[in-house]
């Protein structure tokens, strides 16, 4: 039975919801901190431009993952795609990066990473995940090497031991919990794009769900559930796919933002103020910008069909 | 060039708390009126309802006013007006409209004094005051005894409505089904919000009471205020409910 937590809000009676949540809180509090897996949420996409909806994905995912009691979300990464993606209407990466940075200025846990956008060629999402996972592993090694006192504390202490050894609490918290795990954060549209011919390599899809994991924010859980059901590889790794229900219909797509801008309509309160000001100041989106890459084949389609040819 | 009619948009409601969706109503309405070519929206007013409205979970009006003020810090055309919230009893919407209309008349510059002795130039038009609301309010006009008929008439005849449609509500239907609205449909402007963004304050309150994030649904400054004053916590909502039960109030 794959995980499709519908959120605490879904329970029938308010009393029921509250009681359930209290139980869960108790469980989380009593759980040994080192038993939780640290998670980093990675969101790939055009971010053309970034919107409040993108930012909400992170908040919803974090609340959800932390709420399971098994995970602790420590970081969110926004990784805008490189210009070599050749999507229609995609404006230069440096603008998209700056807007994402402005948007996350007031966030203490979500940041922007430029590695993907700086690559000359388009990079498959699985490779971006791998890059960030390897980066976390490398810095975790460094951390361990620099703190010799932690070397011996690899084993997990028993519950009772911890409670009695309050004086050792400090070193316990410094115990490495294992390497944080990177998981792909996305909307249902990305999940369903797995079905678009030649857009994804099948081995990449397998790698993403088997080795990393997917957190998918969906409006109507049923479509995503159906999609998982109909795919053998997704079904097989369903325990690694988390569907999070978004109760507020939040349709702030970048496409609509760009359209509103072309029509001289306000985008205030749909994107962070700093992003709106930046767009206005640099006049980033117009009919001309929307025509960029017109007629050019999207990079993944180009690459996957070329490789398919004998 | 024909001069445009200045318009002021007035939104009444609980604003409990104010959200990005409330703020969007103003932006969408302004765009829509400007598109007609006839109007120039010069001001937006948010008028939080008074505590005497006795709606369930309504936090004290001074908080709701403060939060709206914080939300509007960065807006150069929308402001909050606490008049309604400061009244000793609940005010019907039409009375709030009348009050603000009076204020607009009072503050309009008298032309005669400026042009003493000369031929009078065209007087600056007094701004038209219109009620801004979601299209679901149109639906509530149909609810028996919720609005007085004479008030509905005054609102649509004397002032005018700008309704921003939400998903699932067909506003034209609500207008055509009610004779008084049908008669003044020319004074009812239907603006479409292309971006479905149903951030209900109810959802916000529930999320807050459950410790869930509401970031990016309302301005950061409002979230900070809510946290600082511990509004909408699980305890506070319990308190409201039990006190309302003991007073025998219905929501």
Automatic annotation (TrEMBL), chain A:
Keyword entries, A-Z: ATP-binding, Magnesium, NAD, Nucleotide-binding, Nucleotidyltransferase, Nucleus, Phosphoprotein, Pyridine nucleotide biosynthesis, Transferase, Zinc
Compartments, record wording: Nucleus
Location, primary (coarse class): nucleus
Signal peptide, first to last residue: none
Top EC class for this record: transferase
Claim: Ion transport is one of the keywords in the record: no
GO molecular function, one term: ATP binding
Pathway assignment: Cofactor biosynthesis; NAD(+) biosynthesis; deamido-NAD(+) from nicotinate D-ribonucleotide: step 1/1; Cofactor biosynthesis; NAD(+) biosynthesis; NAD(+) from nicotinamide D-ribonucleotide: step 1/1
InterPro entries per the UniProt record, alphabetical: Cyt_trans-like, Euk_NMN_adenylyltrnsfrase, NadD/NMNAT, NMNAT_euk, Rossmann-like_a/b/a_fold
One annotated Gene Ontology cellular component of this protein: nucleus
Catalytic activity, as annotated: nicotinate beta-D-ribonucleotide + ATP + H(+) = deamido-NAD(+) + diphosphate; beta-nicotinamide D-ribonucleotide + ATP + H(+) = diphosphate + NAD(+)
Short name of one Pfam family: CTP_transf_like
Residue stretches making up the Cytidyltransferase-like domain: 42-259
Region of interest called Disordered, as start-end residue ranges on this chain: 138-175
Cofactor list: Zn(2+); Mg(2+)
One GO process term, biological-process aspect: NAD+ biosynthetic process
Keyword Zinc: yes
Subunit structure: Homohexamer. Interacts with ADPRT/PARP1.
PANTHER family on file: NICOTINAMIDE MONONUCLEOTIDE ADENYLYLTRANSFERASE, NICOTINAMIDE_NICOTINIC ACID MONONUCLEOTIDE ADENYLYLTRANSFERASE 1
Entry protein name: Nicotinamide-nucleotide adenylyltransferase
Organism of derivation: Dipodomys ordii (Ord's kangaroo rat)
Native organism taxonomy: Eukaryota, Metazoa, Chordata, Craniata, Vertebrata
Automatic annotation (TrEMBL), chain B:
Pfam family, one: CTP_transf_like
Localization: Mitochondrion
GO MF: ATP binding; nicotinamide-nucleotide adenylyltransferase activity; nicotinate-nucleotide adenylyltransferase activity
Coiled coil location: none
InterPro entries, per the entry: Cyt_trans-like, Euk_NMN_adenylyltrnsfrase, NadD/NMNAT, NMNAT_euk, Rossmann-like_a/b/a_fold
Enzyme category, top tier: transferase
Pathway(s) where this gene product acts: Cofactor biosynthesis; NAD(+) biosynthesis; NAD(+) from nicotinamide D-ribonucleotide: step 1/1; Cofactor biosynthesis; NAD(+) biosynthesis; deamido-NAD(+) from nicotinate D-ribonucleotide: step 1/1
Domain Cytidyltransferase-like: 10-206
Keyword Disulfide bond: no
Single Gene Ontology BP annotation: NAD+ biosynthetic process via the salvage pathway
Catalysis performed (reactions): beta-nicotinamide D-ribonucleotide + ATP + H(+) = diphosphate + NAD(+); nicotinate beta-D-ribonucleotide + ATP + H(+) = deamido-NAD(+) + diphosphate
GO cellular component: mitochondrial matrix
SUPFAM superfamilies (UniProt xref): Nucleotidylyl transferase
EC number, as in UniProt: 2.7.7.1, 2.7.7.18
Cofactor: Mg(2+)
Keywords for the protein's UniProt record, in alphabetical order: ATP-binding, Mitochondrion, NAD, Nucleotide-binding, Nucleotidyltransferase, Pyridine nucleotide biosynthesis, Transferase
Stated role: Catalyzes the formation of NAD(+) from nicotinamide mononucleotide (NMN) and ATP. Can also use the deamidated form; nicotinic acid mononucleotide (NaMN) as substrate with the same efficiency. Can use triazofurin monophosphate (TrMP) as substrate. Can also use GTP and ITP as nucleotide donors. Also catalyzes the reverse reaction, i.e. the pyrophosphorolytic cleavage of NAD(+). For the pyrophosphorolytic activity, can use NAD(+), NADH, NaAD, nicotinic acid adenine dinucleotide phosphate (NHD), nicotinamide guanine dinucleotide (NGD) as substrates.
Self-association and partners: Homotetramer.
Similarity remark: Belongs to the eukaryotic NMN adenylyltransferase family.
Protein name: Nicotinamide-nucleotide adenylyltransferase
